[in-house]
Write a structure and sequence with these properties.
alpha/beta; Rossmann fold; two-stranded antiparallel ribbon; 23% helix; 136 residues; flat
């Protein structure tokens, strides 16, 4: 008799970086969800570079990345191109859960258990001088 994980069969797409979004995906993966993390094809997720920031101690292993990426699969998509957006949209359409913390990741609505998503714009850099509404 094989044991199933609590969230076995749950499909999750994660388009998030830094702390809360990835942490949510990690917890779901820990409980057995199939989590696919979307990353930029050239630079990857910013978490991959935390060992280069100070005052992080110099180390061979990037523990921040190991902790946040465990149990997940990653896919590199250029979301500035139509082909990359089409793949991301198809992943989201097939998912049970979509996690994002990107300010302009798109529009998501769940209606009676059906997922409708239109990813309209992806912006991976946020101007820290402006608030959520864009006002200076």
């Amino acid at each position: 008799m094989s044991e199933k994980s609590l969230l076995d069969g749950l499909r999750v797409v994660e388009l998030a970086t830094f702390v809360f979004g990835p942490a949510a995906g990690t917890v779901l993966a820990d409980f057995g969800a199939d989590v696919v993390h979307i990353e930029h094809p050239q630079i990857g997720d910013a978490y991959r570079y935390l060992t280069q920031l100070r005052p992080m101690p110099a180390c061979v292993d990037n523990y921040c990345w190991i902790l946040t990426a465990r149990g997940k699969r990653s896919i590199a998509l250029d979301l500035h191109r139509a082909a990359g957006r089409a793949v991301a949209l198809e992943l989201v359409r097939r998912a049970d859960v979509f996690i994002t913390n990107l300010q302009r990741a798109g529009v998501l609505a769940v209606v009676r258990g059906s997922l409708f998503a239109e990813i309209v714009e992806f912006e991976l850099a946020v101007d820290s001088r402006r608030g959520r509404d864009g006002a200076a």
